[in-house]
């Protein structure tokens, strides 16, 4: 499959086929021609994994045994996310790129074949299902040594447009129920490829945290007639002491009951359900606050902070009237040389205990000199 698509802000998407049949999508701002072929030998793609129900908590668990052999912390000269150069044939055939999105080579979730349905939940006797969904990789710079905070505002805007485009397109797949986009940085949070990139997991079911957030939001609306996240945002604006950055379209704050030493939520002041429903004005104003937040995070201790940055958005087909889009950035770094480990209470019980007040971490983030 090849083709193109004009997006907003002068960004164009060009699609190419990879050697094994996967699709790579180039997002460009200068009308670049993307014709480089994937010269790697054809490899058989991994099969679809299993979907099993944990009946103790009624949560789905994906079993993807084929991922055991995936690439693990390769040296820079063998990085599969760098551009193709010389004898190094990578996932990106071109010698340079702005933003690219391609189907994951070792996906936890993949599109099903034929008719597909989530198994009925009937406790221990629930059938094994297939792990339907989609996993994609998003590379937002060709420079192996850079990170999100080093991007130009124009590149962040292109990256955001790629996120928007993928959310919109994946939402039309009948087997997709929820789309999560996230970036992991740092070995402390389990990164296995150090080239700066983010990922998309498009699930065929609602992940546990989404189900819980949806249930709480619906109950709040039924009782109060108001949207929970809107009230949370109003309190943060009223309290003011946990706000770390804002512009006329976005606000960034440390939540009142944060679970990590450094946790930041970034939300549009004009509430929307997902990335695809952001206005042009919101998209244009995002790079400014996104870069400020990431620079403040790294500036707290003057070192690169390991983090997980996740877009929370409403599911594809439910809860779109009660859940709000926001970007959550969490770091387990509590001091230079010290991490907040998720030990017994957090890992086994799901009960988080914080060693520092959210107001303290908000003050540290505000005090960073940019």
UniProtKB/TrEMBL annotation:
- Keyword Transferase assigned to the entry: answer is yes
Enzyme kind, highest EC tier = transferase
Name the cofactor(s): Zn(2+)
Q: Where is the Galactose-1-phosphate uridyl transferase N-terminal domain?
A: 50-207
Outline the extent of the Galactose-1-phosphate uridyl transferase C-terminal domain.
Answer: 221-368
Q: Which Gene3D superfamilies match?
A: HIT-like (3.30.428.10)
Entry keyword set: Carbohydrate metabolism, Galactose metabolism, Metal-binding, Nucleotidyltransferase, Transferase, Zinc
User: One short Pfam family name for this protein?
Assistant: GalP_UDP_tr_C
Listed name of the protein: UDP-glucose--hexose-1-phosphate uridylyltransferase
UniProt source species = freshwater metagenome
Q: In which pathway does it act?
A: Carbohydrate metabolism; galactose metabolism
Q: Which NCBIfam families match?
A: galT_1
Q: Which GO terms describe its cellular component?
A: cytoplasm
Q: Would you identify the family this protein belongs to, as annotated?
A: Belongs to the galactose-1-phosphate uridylyltransferase type 1 family.
The protein's GO terms of the molecular function aspect are: UDP-glucose:hexose-1-phosphate uridylyltransferase activity; zinc ion binding
């Amino acid at each position: 499959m090849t083709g193109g698509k004009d997006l907003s802000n002068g960004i164009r998407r060009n699609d190419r086929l990879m050697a094994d049949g996967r699709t790579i999508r180039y997002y460009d701002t200068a009308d670049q021609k993307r014709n480089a072929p994937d010269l790697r030998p054809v490899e058989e793609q991994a099969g679809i994994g299993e979907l099993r129900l944990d009946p103790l908590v009624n949560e789905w668990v994906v079993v993807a045994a084929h991922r055991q052999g995936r690439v693990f912390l390769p040296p820079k000269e063998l990085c599969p996310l760098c551009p193709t150069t010389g004898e190094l044939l990578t996932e990106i055939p071109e010698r340079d790129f702005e933003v690219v999105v391609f189907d994951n080579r070792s996906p936890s979730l993949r599109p099903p074949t034929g008719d597909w349905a989530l198994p009925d939940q009937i406790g221990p006797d629930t059938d094994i299902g297939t792990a339907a969904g989609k996993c994609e990789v998003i590379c937002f710079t060709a420079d192996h040594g850079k990170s999100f905070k080093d991007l130009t505002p124009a590149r962040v805007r292109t990256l955001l447009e790629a996120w928007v485009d993928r959310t919109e397109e994946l939402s039309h797949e009948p087997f997709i129920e929820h789309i999560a986009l996230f970036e992991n940085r740092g070995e402390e949070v389990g990164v296995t490829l150090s080239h700066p990139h983010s990922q998309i997991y498009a699930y065929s079911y609602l992940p546990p945290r989404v189900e819980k957030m949806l249930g709480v939001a619906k109950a709040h609306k039924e009782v109060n007639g108001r949207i929970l996240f809107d009230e949370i945002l109003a309190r943060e604006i009223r309290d003011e002491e946990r706000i770390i950055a804002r512009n006329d379209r976005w606000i960034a704050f440390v939540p009142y009951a944060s679970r990590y030493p450094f946790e930041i939520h970034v939300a549009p002041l004009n509430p929307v359900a997902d990335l695809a429903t952001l206005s042009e004005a919101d998209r244009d104003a995002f790079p400014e606050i996104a870069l400020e937040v990431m620079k403040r995070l790294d500036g707290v201790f003057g070192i690169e902070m390991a983090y997980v940055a996740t877009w929370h958005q409403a599911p594809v087909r439910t809860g779109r009237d009660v859940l709000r889009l926001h970007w959550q950035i969490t770091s387990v770094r509590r001091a230079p040389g010290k991490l907040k480990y998720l030990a017994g209470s957090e890992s086994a019980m799901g009960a988080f205990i914080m060693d520092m007040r959210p107001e303290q971490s908000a003050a540290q983030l505000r005090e960073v000199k940019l």
